[in-house]
UniProtKB/TrEMBL annotation:
GO BP, one annotated term: trehalose biosynthetic process
Gene name of the encoded protein: TPS1
Similarity field: In the N-terminal section; belongs to the glycosyltransferase 20 family.
Keyword Glycosyltransferase belongs to the record: yes
Protein name in UniProt: alpha,alpha-trehalose-phosphate synthase (UDP-forming)
Domain of life of the organism encoding this protein: Eukaryota
Keywords, alphabetical: Glycosyltransferase, Transferase
Protein species of origin: Mangifera indica
Membrane found in the keyword field: no
EC number, UniProt record: 2.4.1.15
Root EC class: transferase
Cellular-component GO terms for this entry: cytosol
GO MF terms held by the record: alpha,alpha-trehalose-phosphate synthase (UDP-forming) activity; trehalose-phosphatase activity
Length: 489
């Protein structure tokens, strides 16, 4: 619907993220099949009724020809998605290179890759140039679709240049930027050769959001120490302009998980899983196979637990579901073999003819299977070395209202700030501490489990993804209005 003045009835929200929430498969010269992938962000925004969301992003495929691009654009329009076309070289340098090989590890405290330590190396500079170019390509698409009154919400470390590109083109655009990863200490950020350019580009936004107060504080410190700007409780003073900086902890669509548990197919899966693991306690890890998730550390802690608690050896199983990601990046290939080697060794050491202590899968599970698995789990193990939030811990809690299992959670996940009182918090680098926590979780009294679960369940069901998205966007609207008032005064 439209108003009399031609503006849409609901405020339009342009959500810009590196990847569109669809997977696209080409079926012919001008035909595509599309599948919506219901990640956290998608379900968050589906629930938001005040806004009419449109998605802008890369469809994850290389489409060099015009016929294919046209057909894909048309197919995506039905899903309210607008594609940004990136060619293979840009994807290699911007996505695999600058985003995943430089910013991702740096923001998770893993440092810069050795060969790129000097800004003078060609690869760093050309990757950074590709990063800016890619961000400009996203901006072009946003500018083409933007209408007065729209809100533009940019997501994540892939698009740190986007706020600047957008504001350079149109000062009046409402632009917000949200980071899904941690923002590291300013001492880490300052090692990045392009540290200042990135900070300035983000500061062009009206509102900058992070999962936790600590990340927001690190960002403000980086701006004051590296750029010499003024930090205030509101954000960062940038000459004539205030950029508002705040924490907006994400959540999940908890109802979607709880509804799924009532689905007959899920009930059937639950029954099968219970039969398969009868007589054993189930421990669960669900992660993208990424170095930040601390998977080797988790498995080594489980080994130590088995070593020290022989009475548990045939009474517990660890199911580790690890979805392969970024398989083009060599570090990720190395991690896969490292994990396989440790799992093989431990299963060789503690397995019997009929059972193994660790079942490791290199794949993702569909939503209904995942829910069933969460529901039958006794102890979930989240041992991220760093993690912006970690939604797996939230999803586990949402599915545990009848079982009341225990969550072991890394203190370096953003979720530790919200689920800390209900979970057993651990330092994932301390293998002994994690092993002891496994023993404690398996032996915990039902009363204590109930009490801890109540705390987390309340949090997860009241701090939802929908509420997160609404809060961010309404805060962005308010921020812009306040800024206009300040200028008029
Ligand atoms: P991720 O690093 O991807 O997200 P996480 O928050 O745990 O981490 O979300 C992963 C999602 O993928 C979950 O919804 C989970 O169910 C799903 N998933 C993971 N492994 C799976 C498997 N084996 N099979 C099926 N599904 C699987 C980034 C940041 C996080 C931050 C989120 C949201 O790194 O810190 O919480 O964004 O901001």
């Amino acid at each position: 619907g439209e108003r009399a003045d031609g503006r849409p009835l609901k405020q339009r929200l342009l959500v810009v993220a590196n990847r569109l929430p669809v997977s696209a498969v080409r079926r012919g010269e001008d035909s595509w099949s599309l599948e919506i992938s219901a990640g956290g962000l998608v379900s968050a925004l589906l629930g938001v009724k005040e806004f009419e969301a449109r998605w802008i992003g890369w469809a994850g495929v290389n489409v060099p020809d015009e016929i294919g691009q046209k057909a894909l654009t048309k197919a995506l329009a039905e899903k309210r998605c607008i594609p940004v076309f990136l060619d293979e070289d840009i994807v290699h340098q911007y996505y695999n290179g600058y985003c995943n090989n430089i910013l991702w590890p740096l923001f998770h405290y893993l440092g810069l890759p050795q060969e790129d330590r000097l800004a003078t190396t060609r690869s760093f500079q050309s990757q950074f140039a590709a990063y800016i170019k890619a961000n400009e390509m996203f901006a072009d698409v946003v500018n083409k679709h933007y209408k007065d009154g729209d809100v533009v919400w940019c997501h994540d470390y892939h698009l740190m240049f986007l706020p600047k590109c957008l504001k350079d083109h149109n000062k009046g655009m409402k632009v917000g930027w949200f980071l899904h990863t941690p923002f590291p200490s300013s001492e880490i950020h300052r090692t990045l050769p392009s540290r200042s350019d990135l900070l300035h580009a983000v500061l062009a936004a009206d509102l900058v959001g992070f999962h936790t107060y600590d990340y927001a504080r690190h960002f403000v410190s980086a701006c004051t120490r590296i750029l010499g700007l003024e930090g205030t409780p509101e954000g960062v003073e940038n000459q004539e302009k205030l950029t508002r900086v705040a924490a907006f902890p994400i959540g999940i669509d908890s109802d979607r998980f709880m509804r799924a548990l009532e689905n007959p197919q899920v009930q059937e899966h639950i029954k099968e899983l219970k039969e398969t693991f009868a007589g054993r306690k189930v421990m669960l890890g669900v992660d993208r196979l990424d170095m930040i998730k601390g998977i080797p550390q988790k498995i080594l802690a489980f080994e130590k637990f088995l070593e020290e608690n022989p009475e548990w050896r045939d009474k517990v199983v660890l199911l580790q579901i690890a979805v392969p990601t970024r398989t083009d990046v060599p570090e990720y290939q190395k991690l896969t073999s490292q994990v396989h080697e440790i799992v093989g060794r431990i299963n060789g050491r503690f397995g019997t003819l009929t059972t193994v202590p660790i079942q490791h899968l290199d794949r993702s599970l569909d939503f209904l299977q995942l829910c069933a698995l969460y529901a039958v789990t006794d102890v979930a193990l989240v041992t991220s070395l760093r993690d912006g939030m970690n939604l797996v811990s939230y999803e586990f809690v949402a599915c545990q209202d009848s079982k009341k299992g225990v969550l072991i959670l890394s203190e370096f996940a953003g979720a530790a700030q919200s689920l800390g009182a209900g979970a057993i918090l651990v330092n994932p680098w301390n293998i002994t501490e994690v092993a002891n926590s496994i023993a404690r979780a398996l032996n915990m009294s039902p009363q204590e489990r109930e009490k801890r679960h109540r705390h987390n369940f309340k949090h997860v069901t009241t701090h939802t993804a929908q509420e997160w998205a609404e809060t961010f966007v309404s805060e962005l609207n308010v921020t812009v209005v306040e800024a206009e008032l300040r200028i008029k005064q």
